[in-house]
Amino acid sequence: MREIVEALGAQHAELDAALDPLDDADWARPSRCPGWTVADVVLHLAQTDELAASNARGDTGGNDWAGGDVDSVVDAAVARERGAPPAEVLRRWRAAASAVRESLASADPRQPIPWVVGSLPARTLATTRLAECWVHTGDVLYALGTRQEPTDRLWHIARLAWRTLPYAFAKDGRKPAGGFGLKLRAPDGSTWEFGLDDDPATVVRGDALGFCLVAARRTTPERVDLSATGPDCDRVLDVVRTFA
Asked: How does the average pLDDT of the chain come out, rounded?
């Protein structure tokens, strides 16, 4: 648990360093999220970190995120609170990020914590927070015309996407033909393998960054170095996801 919370803290630090020097015009730039500015992205992270921290503490009374279409609920939450001064949004996100790290660090990794579509073990919730902060850091850097450098934190995100493939297929209304494996090229040139010891039916191979971007719906499979073999090869890269 400590490893994933430390990775979450490092991702928070990366985003904080990008946000700290921005002026009001930068906060109003359109991000990679359609219809959202940089300020909207950071507001969304503050809202969801607050929710995760509250739920991890056992205070779920204000949890009105469950039910309905998740994207619509998220958009409505941002729309309700949009317009605060950038300095206030930044202070709010910093407080929420600190709170979520503190609350998850003290949780049992297997402790079920309510989340948007049910309950997740604390470790999995921490990994989803890492994945969300990572992809939204990229959304902010895109607005600023800066490239996001890949790090070994992607290991956690790739593992999350691999482990949740059965959920992704269920969301797509399909039942996979068998298990899944990954063989990915890490940012440092080494190889990350997931599930290959279990003789998976379908295997995805290629670039770890590309896989994580596809799972985050920030690119499409044909634009990155990825391939799949097996009975679900035609669908696995279309349904993989790191979010509810």
From this structure: 95
Q: What is the torsion angle, in degrees rounded to the nearest 10, for the CA atoms of residue 191, residue 158, residue 102 and residue 31?
A: 120
CATH value of 154-239 in 2.40.30, 3.30.1050, 1.10.20, 2.40.50: 3.30.1050
> Which of 110, 116, 138 is closest to 11 using CA atoms?
138
The backbone torsions φ and ψ at residue 163, rounded to the nearest 5 degrees and listed phi first, read -65, -25
Q: Which two tokens stand for residue 220?
A: 């499409």
| E strand or H helix that includes residue 157 | helix 154-163
Q: How deeply is 77 buried, as exposed, middle or buried, from its count of CB atoms within 10 A (0-12, 13-18, 19+)?
A: middle
Q: What is the pLDDT, as a whole number, of residue 244? A: 80
| Topology (CATH level 3) of domain 2-143 | Four Helix Bundle (Hemerythrin (Met), subunit A) (1.20.120)
Indicate if the pLDDT at residue 63 is higher than 70: no
**pTM for the predicted model, two decimal places:** 0.96
C-alpha triplet 128, 72, 162: angle, nearest 5°: 30
